[in-house]
Amino acid sequence: MSRTSEWGQVLRSLAAPLLLAGLAALGGCGEAPGGAQGAASRQTPVAAAAPPSEATLKLGRDVYNFRCYFCHGYSGDAKTLAATYLDPKPRDFQGTKPEEMPVERILAAVKNGRPGTAMKGFTGILNDEEMKAVSEFVRDEFLVKRAPNTRYHTKENGWPDHERNAAAFPFAKGEIAIDTPFEQLTPPQQQGLRLFKSACITCHDHAKVNDPGKVWESRPVSFPRDAYCTSCHQDVPRSEPTGVSHPQRPATHTFAQRDGTVPVRSPARAEAQIGANYVIHDKPPVLVGASAQELKGEQLFQKNCAFCHAGDGTAKGWIGSFLEPHPRDLTSDEQMKGMTRERLLRSIREGLPDTSMPAWKSVLTDSEIEALAAYIARAFHPVEGIRTSQAAGK
């Protein structure tokens, strides 16, 4: 629900004063009495920093692959779906020279974030050891070694012999627009486009197009309904207007289970593995006798807020479980203690600093924010100062 990114701008702004300070120390003192230039040349060289240990790099890799890959990419090149929506773009570490980013600068960005970008500070989320480790890892893996870190399409992730799909790669990478007239493609490219549209487009849905067409919106869901194994690679039935249907297609490939045995293919089986923990929180409470304002609030909440707070307001959905700090459980007596109408409206309108709760004042109107508050008070927990239809009916 937020846009922005890129460390580079501020890192370059830090480079200027550091560079000037370095030049002054090395060459700008030649006019000082007593031959300061010669004295500087006799100073003992500063010892090079010791390379990070294997344990530090392992910890840094673990932190990066859990916290950072979504925007910066598993290979540090910022070629991710999320990055395409961010402005400014995330830092491309693979395209950065090592001398441009000493580990201290990386660590400063990790600790404090970068204002005006999607780069948040991780102080309070990561401890000092983790922040130092991930900074060391980023510089060593991407800037110094130019290594790929952990590619996604690996055998271990359920993608054996992924190179066999090479014909589709130009479309997944945005090298060829997927709406290129079919007759203008070579036979291998035509084969690749068919493969891309049947197997890859669900995840690589922000591929290059010549004509983006009309804007459309999807309904976000809070968990992978197939445990990363079916609907990503086959069509599954979904609600549609009467008379419209989507026949199932067989999966083009499946992910292996963690133990490497038979891949999961059944949505029911997948739900038992992962989805059952989250599907119950996707269902909003049924309101009886709700007012028009509360019903409007329900529509707004389920469209905009349920992604993090879950459909039932508990914040126990898939996404909410990953956010730190966790979104507020709107049904909790403890977390809603002291909540008033004014406080709730302000939180929705202005957002909450140092959390994932954004400000909605530029997205929703005042009346819509009022409707959201009314719905929360009616569906999840009483709020001081808000009289609900349920209370009015008593």
What does this entry look like structurally?
The chain is mainly α and 394 residues long. The protein has four domains: 8-26 and 50-144, Cytochrome c-like domain (Cytochrome Bc1 Complex, Chain D, domain 2, Orthogonal Bundle), CATH 1.10.760; 162-200, no CATH class; 220-237 and 248-279, no CATH class; 292-392, Cytochrome c-like domain (Cytochrome Bc1 Complex, Chain D, domain 2). 38% of the residues lie in helices and 0% in strands. The chain has helices at 8-26, 36-41, 54-67, 69-72, 81-84, 103-112, 128-144, 169-172, 187-200, 267-279, 292-309, 341-350, 366-379, 389-392. Helix 3 packs across helix 7. The longest helix has 19 residues, at 8-26. The model is unreliable at 1-46, 226-258 and 260-265 (pLDDT under 50).
Tell me the CATH topology of the largest domain.
Answer: Cytochrome Bc1 Complex, Chain D, domain 2
Q: Number of helical runs?
A: 14
Taken together, the total number of domains comes to 4
**Beta-strand percent range:** under 5%
| Overall mean pLDDT | 77
Q: What is the overall shape?
A: globular
Fourth CATH level, the homologous superfamily of the largest domain: Cytochrome c-like domain
Q: What integer value in Å does the Rg equal?
A: 26 Å
Oligomer, anyone? single chain
Low-confidence stretches: 1-46, 226-258, 260-265
CATH architecture of the largest domain: Orthogonal Bundle
- Alpha-beta classification: mainly alpha
- Gap from first CA to last CA: 38 Å
